[in-house]
Amino acid sequence: MSNALELRKRVAHDIMIPRNQLRYIDLEDTAEESLQIARKTGHTRFPICNGDLDDCVGIVHIKDAFRSGQEGTSIDWESLKRPMITFSMDEPLEAVLQRFLKTRKHFALLKDEFGGTVGAVTLEDVLEELVGDIQDEFDKEEALVTETSGGIFQVDGLTALHDLSDDLGIEFQAEEVSTFGGYITYELGRMPQQGEKFRIKDLEIEVTAVDERRVLGAQVRVVAESEEETEPVAETEGEDG
Hints:
Helix content: 25-40%
Strand order of the largest sheet: 8-9-12-11-10
CATH class of the largest domain: Alpha Beta
Distance between the termini: 45 Å
CATH architecture of the largest domain: Roll
């Protein structure tokens, strides 16, 4: 009941799979290159695109490739495509769920106000907001947030802010981003370096892993109110207090 009520407060952006985590079938690639992507990822549904995700022409279910009877090196992906549905980033999850059920779709792209693709959302993601994590035989159970010692948490960069809010007991005011890694780079206004330490609002953060595009992980400690009163800390290193 609680999850159903909370669903009304969520929008598509809250559970978005970021664009840089999406794999797609590029019509400019060879059929064999596309099959390699399918084998490597193990996914069942792929956007069909001309060059990149901003020019998506449909979606293909990998089982359609096997049912088509076409040879692996001569698969005509465009002939197998189905219509792709899209949502705006601020589409309420209730509306997302209703449209998924009405159209019998499981995957959709999220678009920004300029029509660019910013990520994707799946039916499974929406259902997990209602019933909790849905694990199958291919999922690897990995905790995104783990408490180590002394009130310090190890947080995966892809952790959804609303989930982290529950774990840490604080509220995040960040409509522009949905993941903790995105929150760090947004608040800093730049990409942090591995090993860098800083303070953002009520959190002391040490970045433990990054790549060229995002924060992969960080250690986090919530600053208590008593610490706020006795030992003020600057927002980030290098700034005046």
